């Protein structure tokens, strides 16, 4: 089995392969909890999926502007053409935020090499500079030497782009993070869940380190000393609402509607909550 969203990770199998032990934990979990069978559509391709739907009623607050625990620590994927074209179309804003072009010019690269690199190299900078020059994801930036933000997402917001457009321009793994999708080797079936107390043993991300889906962590004194303003208790809402638009455009309307209806049917979320408009994609 593989961590589906990491299949295009620059480090390959070392990252995306699920160990036998984790595979067994996942199978055990999915045999024990209530499951929804549905269909997802990602980048135009349909997949059959089993969804651990109750996890989508877990509370989340994606308060990225105020988060001091950046999750953009690694290049998550070999970038798609749509992202490369977007960077080239917005090269000035991209450089103003990330300084990637300036850094490479100062390191002796020619402009033509830098453009070629954005078009062809896995992480949009020359391969030999990925670890040496930039320890965070090459698209990340620090607006104030504190928070770490995504330059792609920020440029989209500056251009007043819709949630659908944001999801199209950013890597899918980033839009959906930290939702976990694990696939059978041949992709004939996907298993979809969220890191929490029950799944964190087999999900690729660690629930206990992730404030946006762990309200208790976000309220702890040690965490609040680093994040005194953000992560207000009242701003935690069920993931299906916090990530409503993201889920709709990343995994398809059918997935979103099926999970939402199931959660309402089982009183895991309430109809009144559905009037909360999805805003959190515009907070990143
Ligand atoms: S997604 Fe979560 S961990 Fe990452 S920056 Fe946003 S709030 Fe912080
Ligand atoms: S959200 Fe943006 S900055 Fe963060 S890992 Fe993804 S592409 Fe990089």
TrEMBL record:
It comes from the Bacteria. This is Uncharacterized protein.
